[in-house]
Predict the 3D structure of the following.
Amino acid sequence: MGFRLPVPVLAQTGQRPFRRGFSGPVITLTHLKGEKIVLNADLVESLEATPDTVVTLTTGKRIVVQESVPEVARKVEEYTLRRSAHTDKA
């Protein structure tokens, strides 16, 4: 079953500069092999449970991670909310 992220989560990059204190567009996930990976949250296009979680990027690359679909979606949403809070202050 596929999961498409809502349009606000698919924020375009490069619209506004990051403010000081903001960590940037990254989320930390765990590759299926157990390695920690840092992923640009702006590039996440869709998530699938196959039963492993597959993250598809806007580049077409697919990454299999240990986190569940809801966990990855939550991390992307939290990033988006942090970004909005920082860019709204600009």
Q: What stands out?
A: Residues 22 and 82 are 8 Å apart (CA to CA). Strands lie at 2-4, 26-30, 36-40, 44-49, 53-57, 62-65.
